[in-house]
Amino acid sequence: GRSGGCRPAARRRGARSTGRRPRRADREHPTCGSAADRQGDASHDQAVAEVLLVMTSTILGVLLLSSRVAIRERRFRALFAQVTDLVTVVDGGGMISFAGPAYEHALGYIPARLIGRDFKDLAHPDDRDRLKGVLTRLGQTANVSEKLECRLRHASGTWCYVALSGRNQFHNTSVRGIVLSGHDLTERKGIEDLTARYAQAA
Asked: Would you state the pLDDT for residue 56?
């Protein structure tokens, strides 16, 4: 009337003992187990596999999205590299979030170092109030445009005359700001001043 439980194969009745201790693998992995245990292990393995699949898919999606964003940004900057105008994106208060490559050639600034600066600080003190008024009006109405001629400080400390055109693009999710496009008028202003002086001398 002994219990009918399973016994390791090496210890079956009638089997001659070899005097060898059971191997570690035999102790850790007995030759028998309940069907419920095996079913539980399979369910656990399947759950782990599903979690890993979801994590892998999520990570892959993030990597692909980052790659697409990086490609779009490179194309965006490559296009602006061909633009000679001073292209700037600012918020309603004038804080710069984007500065085009032309800044380095026209005003001597490295564009990345302008990010986070107040655009109004680049303007001549006598022009700041007018510039502030333009930015305020642009920030209040979608799709409205404004134009302004002002002086912007060159990195060398001199002043450059610039014709600015601005447009509210807060509704555009790719921009979310005021887009300013500036054209250098310094050479034209120099010619106008020279012509005026000659006219006065005559």
From this structure: 46
- Closest among 15, 168, 151 to 91, alpha carbons compared: 168
Backbone phi and psi for residue 178, each to the nearest 5 degrees, phi listed first? -100, 125
What is the pTM (predicted TM-score) of this model? 0.58
**Predicted pLDDT at 68:** 55
User: According to DSSP H, which parts of 81-179 are helical?
Assistant: 102-106, 128-140
Q: Which two tokens stand for residue 151?
A: 């002086």
Residue (of 84, 120, 126, 117) closest to 101 by Cα position? 84
Tell me which long-range contacts 163-168 makes (C-beta under 8 A, separation of at least 24). 164/131, 164/134, 166/134, 166/135, 166/138, 167/138, 167/143, 168/138, 168/139, 168/141, 168/142, 168/143, 168/144
Query: What dihedral do alpha carbons 118, 120, 121, 123 form, nearest 10°?
Result: 150
Are 91 and 72 a contacting pair, CB within 8 Å?
Answer: no
